[in-house]
Every structure is written in structure tokens, then in C-alpha cells.
Amino acid sequence: MLDERELATRPIVQESVQHNARTVSNIRALTASLFGVAAGTLGLESFPGFIFYAVGTAVVSVLIFAFKAESNPKAYFWRPLQDLWAGDMFGGLMSFVLTWTLLYNLAKA
Amino acid sequence: MAGAAEQQIHRDPALFYWILLPITVVMVLTGILRHYLSTLLQTAPKRLPLPKIREQRSLLRSANLRMNYAQISPAAFQKRREWWIESARDGKFLADPDARGKGKPNPMSDPAMMEGMMGMMKGNVAMMVPQSLIMGWINAFFSGYVIMKLPFPLTPQFKQMLQAGVGTRDLDVRWVSSLSWYFLTLFGLQPVYNFILGSNNAANQVTQQMAQSQVNPMGGAEDPEKIFNAEAENLEVVEHYYILDGVEDRLLERLQGTV
Amino acid sequence: MANPLLEAPTNSSPATAIDLSQKASTFINSQSSWLSAIPYPLSLFINTESQEKWQTYENLFLACLRTGDDNTAYACLESLTNRFGKGNDRILGLQGLYKESTAKNDSELAEVLKEYEEILKNDPTIFSIRKRRAAVLRSMGRTSDAVTALTNLLDQSPTDAEAWSELADLYLMLGSYEQAIFCLEEVVLVMPNSWNMQARTGEVLYLSSEKLEGADQLRLLSESMRRYCRSLELCDDYLRGYYGLKLTTDRLLELLSTGKKSQQSSSDPVKGDLAPPSIDAVKKLNELATSKLTEIVRRSKSGEKGWDGYSEAEIIAARELLDRGTQKIER
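YS: structure for the whole thing
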């Protein structure tokens, strides 16, 4: 549970949170599409494809961590574990599947 | 995994030019259309008469006081609280002091209320109509044959949905008809919209639905006097503390390491 | 560093304002690039709208008015009007602002005022015009009228932080510190996270403590110090905050070390006021503020990266304060 006093002394501003979340999700969506293109062109199927996605997003997470959050995710995210590392893992999945399927079929046909 | 008998179907490349591409283009265009439609249908918030503004903002002021009370000293807080509660009890903030005690107005009779509901309806229409139209279009033109192969396996439960109208019992679920491509584009096109329309767009109905479920259309239908009384009660039970209490120690503790 | 185009130029130094207004014409030209020249149906595919764009227009407008470049200001205003329409509240306010600043003498200003009153008679809910009216009244020297206008406005819209702080300013001009503090508390209630308003409250508290003596002075002074602490808690390396912290702790050290006896009774638990801070904490805070101020002045002088956002006047003032402190020690 949140300590109300703690929150008052160290406020979390809604707009900034939203802005950060939107930046991260934009990066995720874009990179996920690109991973889909790569996976489709390589002709990956089922598990290798999803593992490719997982590895890719993990790399993107590390890049966000290193460049966008300047190695200090506490300053940018309220709960770094959820907001940066785990939470958005699946945000780009649909985009990934879309481009993956498209390119896979284009490459195979 | 794939087994010995992996099914191969030879497809005509023209399928891409005449089915996959058109569906994708149409989906992108509908997204853009939806964005502009919802911008167009947005009605500017109606200008409220002065007493009504005063009523709303007085309420907001009390809410601010209730939330941010820690920012001011106990004496200042006490003063404000007493003043506000007294004025609220006397009905000084009410837009229409004569209407006190008449009870809850009927939401249908209030034109502002009707407008809010109309706005909701418009949003829903802008969302639902294109969606069902396109589904109908795809079902009418492109059903009855498979066009693509998914790169991942699915359970046979999806066969019904994704191979609708194909009717081959032994065909692998991975072969799907055009309708599934429609679903894929429906959920996966957000980055495309972001790129075209900027990240604040209203093109995707998934995000739209989320935004809409948060608005309560009946929010203002309560009797204002009751709201004020409830607010006064809430304000009364606030237990005050002062944020400046011990701030110098907090600051020292935090900055001790850095200097 | 934040884009200077996106920050309201009212807070910037004159040099930045001039710099901004010189950029204005290039910016306006850059807006009419090939992107917006695309014919109608295709233009729907490209989104040239953004909040930042119009924010920039408005800020350029203000900067140009400040530097006397009325023609460019008018061009900015025109594009804003074309986009948002004549009846928009904010546009009406900006148009008024333009007329005010191009008014050459008091009689022309009075005419603008009359125009405002005409608009307000038709629709008293246009708050931007009501604020402009108060501002005109103030600049014409009719301070008490401005106060009345603002108190009326605040009775109808009591959550308007801008108006509250303007009113606080007016009260400060008139010397009624208590009212000014009340208004600033109201601002802080609306925007609890604004470190500048916390520091501003500290400033007014400090000013008002100068008028008092004994226990009351100590009480206000320690509250002022705590406000500065709060503003520093919200914003690291806030120059005004450290400046105020040093000022108040200097005074507090004097007070606490001279009259120990009388101060003990000053904290009245019935009123719920905080006890005055311990002399130890004040000393530490004073040292902290001094070292931080020295650091800020040094780093900003040498133009280190990330430390160049401070206004020059404030840096000079901070240096002076520091010099004063060292002189005292030498004596």
C-alpha cells in the first residue's frame, strides 16, 4: 500500500508518468514491427520466432535503460520492474505478429 | 513439431495483390477516417453560465483543499475548512439557491445531460460502423479460401473462426482465410497510426474503448446540494498534518551525501 | 535542456526574449514548407498539428511584443486566429494583449479597457478577458480597482492559480502581507508541486517577518525557511531556493543565538504551529546552502554542461550574497 505522506513529500506527477509511458510504448511498437519484419524475412516459425521477439524486446529494454533512462530507471519510472522491464513486454506483440505474418508469407510465396 | 506430413499449398501470388494489399490499405484508411471523424464529431464543451461555473469550481476548490491540505499550516487549513463548510451549509455556492431541496433532477430533462449522452453515442457510432462494414465486406468478397499461412501453430479451436467457409477437415489450422488477416491488422496497426497521425490519435478503437469506459455519463445528475453536503462531510473528517513538519531534517538527510 | 521556444518568454531574461523574437520570422517561414503545401486530400495523411506548434506561436507572439517587433507579433497572432477562430477565449486575450502593447498613451489604453468591458457585458464568462482587464487596471495604476476585479473573478472561479498569484502580487505591492500569504497558500493548494510558488511563499513570509519582532518574527522566519526547504525538496539545485535558504538561516542564526529565553515560549501548541528549528539544523542548512550556492555560481560561471540554465541576474545576486557572508567573517 502506498504511504500517503510519502507520496505527498515526493509527488508523482501524472503528466510526466504518461509522457514516459507513451515514449516507451512508441519505441516498443516501432521496434516490435521491425523485429517482425526481420523474423518474417528470416522465415522463422513458431517458437524460434517468439524467442526472437523476446530476445529483441529484452535488448530494447536494455537500450532504453541505458540511453533513455540514463541507467537510473528510478528517476523515470515509478516501479521500474513493471513499467520498464516486464510490463510492456507484450505491448508490441500484436505489431510483431502482424509484420511477421506478412513478411513470412511474402518470403515463402 | 511440424511432423512428417507438412501440408504445402501452392498459392497464386496474385492473392497478395488482390486481397492482402487491399485489406491492409483499407484498414489503414479506415483508421485515418476514424481519427478525423472523431475529431469532427467532438462537440466543443458548452459554455456554462457564471453561477454554474462558480458552483463547480467551488467544489473543486474544496476537493483541492481536501487533497493538498498538507501544503498549508494547520491554522490556515482550519480557517479555510470552517469557512468553506459554513458557506456550503448555507448554500452560498449553489448556482440556483431557490432550487434547494427539490431533489434529484431527471437526467433526460436536462439538456446538458442529453448532450453528454449524444457525445457517447457518436463516439460509439464512429467506432462500430466502419468495423462492421469492413467485416461484412471481407466476408462477402474474400471468404471461402485460404490466403496465407501463419508462422506459428494454433490449437484446433481456432479452426472455426480462422477458416470460416473453407470446410476442409484436415487442413492445418495455420492456413487461414482473409478474415484473420483483418483481425491481425485490427490489433497491430497502432504504430502505423502513430507514425501518420501523431501519437495522440483516435484511430484505434481498442484505445478508444479504454478511454471511453472511464467516463461516467451520469456523473452530474446528482442534486448539487447533496454533493456539497457530502463534500463538507468529507472535509470535516480530514486529519491534518503539515508537510513542512520536519522538512529541514528530510532535506539535510537527502543532501548530506551529495555535498 | 528544454526548448526555449516552448517556454513562456515572460519568465526569460531580456536577452533570450530578443533572441527568440529574432528567430520568429525564420520559424514562421519554416512552417510554410512543402509539408503544408500538399494539396487537400493528400494533406489529410500528414498531421502537421501539434500542441507544441501553437505553443511556439504564442510564445513567439509574446516575445515579439516584449521586444517591440509588432509586425511579427501580428503575423503570429494572425496565424493563431486563423487556426482557432476569433471567438476563442485565449485568442481574445491575446488580441487584447496586442492592442494593449501597441497603445501609445493612457487614453488609448483606456479605450482598450472600455473594449474589454464591452465584451464582458455580453459574456462575463470569458476569464481571459477578465484577467486582461485586471492587468490593464494595474498597469494604469488603479491598483485597488485591479484588486476588486481579481477578487470578483476569484469568487466565481476560486481555483484559478494564475489569478491568485497575481492578486498576491498586488497585495504585496500594497504592503498587505497577510493577504498576500493567504493568496499564495491558495496557489499552493491548487498546485502543490510547484517549487517556484513554494519559494515565492517563502519570500513573502520572509518579507513580512522583517516587519515583526520577537516571537512572531521567529515563527514567520522559520516557516519561511521551511518553505524554501520544501521547494528544494521538490527541485534540486533551485537557485532561488538556496538563496532564500541562506538568507533565512542567516537571520535565524542571529535570532536564535541572541535571545534564547524569549523564544522558547513562542511555539504555541494550541495553534498547532511548528516549533522553531533547532540551532544545529539551522547551522547545517546554512552551511549546505552556502556550499551549494558556491557550487552553482562556480559551475555556471565556467559554463559547465547542464548548469547553464540559470539567469545571469540571479547568479550575480547569489554571488553578492556569498561575498557579504565572507566579509562578515573577515571582520
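YS: worth flagging: Chain A touches chain C at residues 8-9, 11, 13 (CB under 8 Å).
IM: good catch. Also Residues 1 and 7 of chain A are 11 Å apart (CA to CA).
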